[in-house]
Design goal:
There is one protein chain. With about 190 residues, the protein is an alpha+beta fold. The chain folds into 2 domains: about 80 residues, Orthogonal Bundle (Arc Repressor Mutant, subunit A); about 80 residues, ADP-ribosylation fold. It is about 35% helix and about 15% strand. The chain has 6 helices and 9 strands; from the N terminus they run H-E-H-H-E-E-E-H-E-H-E-H-E-E-E. The strands form 3 sheets. A 3-stranded antiparallel sheet has the order 1-3-2. The protein has a 3-stranded antiparallel sheet with strand order 4-6-9. Strand 2 and strand 3 form a beta hairpin. The radius of gyration is 18 Å and the shape is globular. The model has no long low-confidence stretch (mean pLDDT about 90).
């Protein structure tokens, strides 16, 4: 029973951190630096002041236990690894992608993707996975997953810029439809 409660608390803290480090730091009075970093002590104080007390031990556990490594700690600072809707410069150098990357989605999104390609929506970049398995897990968060292959090699040759975050997520501004490979018959 305790393990189940601990796991629920870990998920709750992770979601709280994602919301306030990626999207709405101002809601709890935080001002990230241009690279998205905030002081851990300031985050803990702000969370407590806004009715969500979290200990440094819980925060360290969430950072260490998160299978997607959503957060990075540098000394006394923390930031989300990617997925921001606020303006940040993660300082990631351009990287040469593998020939193919993958994107997990759901069937109801396919018509829009066929027409417009992959767009960042409320984020700064489109998130791509290096393998089908990860893309399948990502797509499964919203329903029955559909995995699209992205001809990243051709995109790169055509001048599209890619970055890779510390946790292995590939980022690019958009993926035009011509670089997408859809599964099966339409």
């Amino acid at each position: 029973m305790k393990d189940e409660h601990d796991e629920r608390r870990t998920v709750k803290v992770s979601k709280y951190l994602s919301r306030h480090l990626r999207h709405q730091p101002e809601r709890i009075g935080l001002t990230p630096d241009p690279a998205g970093w905030v002081e851990i002590d300031a985050l803990i104080a702000a969370a407590a002041a806004h009715g969500f007390p979290v200990t440094r031990e819980e925060l360290d556990h969430v950072v260490a236990a998160n299978d997607k490594q959503r957060f990075a700690v540098d000394g006394d600072r923390i930031r989300a690894s990617q997925g921001h809707s606020i303006e940040v410069d993660l300082g990631l150098p351009a990287a040469t992608p593998p020939p193919y990357l993958y994107h997990g989605t759901v069937a109801r999104a396919l018509d829009a993707i066929r027409a417009q390609g992959l767009r960042p929506m409320n984020r700064h970049d489109v998130h791509l996975s290096a393998d089908r398995e990860t893309a399948t897990r990502v797509g499964a968060r919203r329903g029955r997953p559909v995995v699209l292959a992205v001809d990243a090699g051709a995109m790169h040759r055509d001048g599209h810029v890619f970055h890779v975050s510390a946790n292995g997520v590939w980022l690019t501004k958009a993926v035009p439809p011509r670089y997408l490979r859809f599964p099966g018959p339409r």
